[in-house]
Amino acid sequence: MNPLPLVAVAGNPNAGKSALFNALTGARQKVGNYPGVTVERHSGRLTLADGRPVEMVDLPGSYSLEPASPDEAVTRDVLLGRQKGERQPDAVVVVVDASNLDNHLRFCLQLIELGLPTIVALNMVDLAKRDGLELDPKTLERELGVPVVETVAVRRRGIAELQQALDDMLSAPFCGVHQHVKSDLIHLQRRAREIATKAVVSETPVRRWTHRLDTVLLHPFLGPIILALIMFVMFQAVFAWSETPKSWIENGVAWLSSLVTGALPPGLLRSLIVDGAIAGVGAVITFLPQILILFFFILLLEGTGYMVRAAFLMDRLMHGVGLSGRAFIPLLSSFACAVPGIMATRTIDDPKDRLTTILVAPLMTCSARLPVYTLIIAAFIPNTRLVWGVGLQGVVMLGLYLTGVGGALLAALVLRRGVLKGSSGGFMMELPKYQWPPLKDVVIGILSRAQIFLKRAGTIILGTTIILWALASVPQAGPGQKQSDVSIAGKIGRAIETVVRPIGFNHDIAMALLPAMAAREVAVSAIATVYSIDSPDEKAGATTLQDKLQHRWSLATALAFLAWFVFAPQCISTIAVTRRETNGWKWPLFMVSYLFVLAYAFAGATYWTAVALGL
Amino acid sequence: MNAPFQPDAIRLDRLPLGMRARVASVDWAALDRGEATRLRQFGFDEGVTVEALHLGPFGRDPIAVRVGRMTVAIRRKHAGAIGVTPLTK
Description:
The structure holds two protein chains of two kinds.
Chain A: E1 6-11, H1 17-25, E2 29-33, E3 40-47, E4 53-58, H2 70-79, E5 91-97, H3 101-114, E6 118-123, H4 125-130, E7 133-135, H5 137-144, E8 148-150, H6 159-171, H7 185-199, E9 200-203, H8 209-217, H9 222-240, H10 243-263, H11 268-285, H12 288-304, H13 306-320, H14 328-333, H15 338-343, H16 351-360, H17 369-380, E10 385-387, E11 390-391, H18 392-417, E12 429-430, H19 439-473, H20 483-486, H21 488-500, H22 507-513, H23 522-534, H24 545-552, H25 555-567, H26 572-582, H27 586-612
Chain B: E1 10-11, E2 20-26, H1 33-42, E3 49-58, E4 61-67, E5 70-74, H2 76-79, E6 82-86
């Protein structure tokens, strides 16, 4: 059987390529990876009018066939039929921004030169009109020598016409591809400008919306204030909006756990399900709302085009510690999770800038730390109000975030002076037009995050929790003995305890640290599991984890534990993604070691300071 | 291409905000390869009309420049390699 015809969607960054791809293929998309490189492959299926299926692939946005990043190299190699794991496309849809023709036509001309059957999607014609720009697609078609279809991808306008054009093109016989003719960039650029000028029917100069917004949002004084406000609202929302859904999940978990407790006779099986699975996974999935709210904001800021403005505002400050403004986006994403954050560093051109950003990204307080922070703060920090609307607990939480950010900036500074010495790269970024992202795209993004998180809860977290439960349950304690002393986990904990005793950690923490290597939030479920095994007679929910902690830990220990989690690189996924992105074990090992050293030092300093202050 | 600066040309980083100018010369040799490629891809080329739109809040760096119909952000250092002739209407 012949493989399906393959159609590649290519174009400049910010041409609305992904929106067009979404409009053509709908929600049924597959996200994979190109073999050997860390570039995502987005593919989907389109059915033509006569029922023939076509495979569509969304290529990474590129300015030209001269790659400046690994993503752009994939785009070039796929189009030239050189990419491993991909056949050469049978046709190309080139997406160009109607209001930016003189730039986008250059890449378009380069693609037409390749000789593959090509269709041009003249996208965002509505925004061009708003900017007072009237274009003639017929002139464009004549000058380029390929079909041109006007589209507004986000409103699904022109999609049917585009499908029709694809249908016609794939039905026509096609003979062979040229080899890549290398016209030089300057020449292509001049030709692009010429064609763009010809295609313009009329142009009324209007003050563009984007420019008006930018005079406020990039204002030297107002700009940073607005950015700070947006960050403030975002982090407030993460806590405030999540309260209600969080309590639903908590009630659901408590209900499920009492249901199982009632249905099963006391014994090992009940303990496994209630103490291991439900207590462990339940403690973690209550944080789903917070994580999704954080991702909602990040997707929204990215989709509207504001994120690039934030990078612009922050570039100079980031430059001061040897990073570039481009690092702002990956670092902000790392507040949700370091894994997508580290993957987002691919947009940083300079290799040393990029490596520094990767190495400090785990210091941003990711959402997996929230369960740990929230639990300890709720248990040990009194809920007193400092001034109106500002509570002590919130201040401590903010302090932990700021310690992480400060640690990251300092680490970047030291790394840039030391192991990653060298001149820093530049900051060159396109500031795209502001636009309201289609709600559907934001929803797709959030759902895929929820899926990833729940999958993790169902696999890594469930698995480590059950292993820990098993290790903590055997051998069974005799009368008068404490289960957490006798069990295998208890013995391992004892060994770790000798190392962490000097920084104020007790036996419970030592036992939780090892499984927390899988993911930080496992620390919470691990402690929950250990305590619920230790006190099997208590009915589920009779005493909360908080109460138990208050009885067993001193304040100094709790604070040291918080300080530890600001720095400790306890996340297998982050280490794995760092290995993948840096192509080897050298940098992930370096990252893990320097972060553990920092964690140990800071936890120790916190503990002994607290003890000296008599806390 | 190391065209000498024209007498009435100034460096792009000295161009007052809101004043349109034409690119007179680009000192490609002062940029590294990747940076030069990016600038070309953004459309910087002799004869193109540019306008400085916004300055970064700290140290007036970076600069947001309109090139043709696109707005791009570049650092002051790189803008210094671009010579422009202000356009008076």
